[in-house]
Amino acid sequence: MEKSRELHIAMFPWFAFGHMIPFLHLSNELAERGHKITFFLPRKVQPKLQHLNSYPHLITFHPLNVPHVDGLPPGTETASDIGRSLTHLLVIALDRTSDQVEAALRTLNPHILFYDFAHWAPVLASQLGIKSVCHSSVSAAAIGYRPLPNDQDQECGGDWRRHLRDVPPPGYPSSTVVLRPHELSSMEFVYKPFGEGITFQQRLTTAYARSDAISSRTCQEIEGPFCDYISIRYGKQVFLTGPIPPKPLPEPLEDRWAQWLGGFGPGSVIFCAFGSENIMVQDQFQELLLGLELTGLPFLVALKPPLGAATVEEAFPEGFQERVGGRGVVHGGWVPQPTILRHPSVGCFVSHAGHGSMWESLTTDPQIVLLPEYFDHILTARLLADELKVAVEVEKEENGSFSKERLCEAIKTVMDEESEIGGLVKKNHGKWKETLVSPGFMSNYIDNFVGQLQDLLDQK
To answer: Which string of DSSP letters, residue by residue, matches 95-156?
Structure first.
């Protein structure tokens, strides 16, 4: 086959913005090289992602009617519509779109189907003569850390603790990118039902094992040993797309943010954001705000209202707004995170250590402070703070809570010019940024990735 052959690729990500947006960023890179994309997504999401489609003549959104599942609020289509406790029902809705996906694939006949949580997708693709690639939007470390099911793991449910005797699994390539004993409970969800008659663990293992290849949004320079480990465990080729951080939006930063940020000196503002799905408990939300207040520095926070609160304002600590005045802004909606991170006034990024935020932080200047809660985010935090030493992780109690003092201390560590640790992470961060944004680094990964896809099609 000629390497210049144009591909038609179908994308079918999990119904969460933290998955759909990285799939769309990858689609843009492929479309930039002349390849055609059909992108499956929930119907009401299309208007929200339209502005991120840089090649509408090559990337076609294919909206799906997401069926109602008992137990979900009416109209639920994405993970951000609900709490994490209900995602096991949303994935049933994703599975029930299989007839729509099959009908479209039969009509469109793409070369390759990319998917993640739809464990049934590779079998469907094979039946239709379509190659399948299980694409991961989380860190390779998190993929490798999960033990593979054995014959005793086939029952749905049971005592999750017995599954974790082999964590990390034999051969796992790091002694630092690991959970601490008191954090193992963050993996409990992996062994709980995630769909009808299947656990999260079984779903993902099936998705990887039945694919024609695995792909990951990472690079060899940072996660190479983890990618090699995944390849050996699953007996699959692992294609790397590179980091693919979002490109700056063409429109300028909204006036209210530009004017507020412009009122402070270079590198003086703390920006805090935890992604589209994270919802904090109220006491930790308040502790976060009090910790930011304690720094004495200006701060911009973009978080969803905590559990039990309709707005962020009603959950403020007593007297908080009056004390911080104009130096602290707490916003309960969406903000353009990549654009804000590039603003010269922003000097520190307090992040939940999501995989997308990891790449955005590594390719911009603000110092990095990490406050992870979930299993994959904890491992990403260990990768950044303990392995690469480009960030500082906030110390937590064994019950998973953090104090305002610990948060303030972590921020001061990276912001203080005299701090030895702060100087080290800043130096290391600068080196990695230089590598990741160097000319040709990103484009070479995508060009190589396309070549690997072409080669996959040649395999019988």
So the answer is: HTTHHHHHHHHHHH--SEEEESS-TTHHHHHHHTT-EEEEEE-S-HHHHHHSPPP-GGG-SS
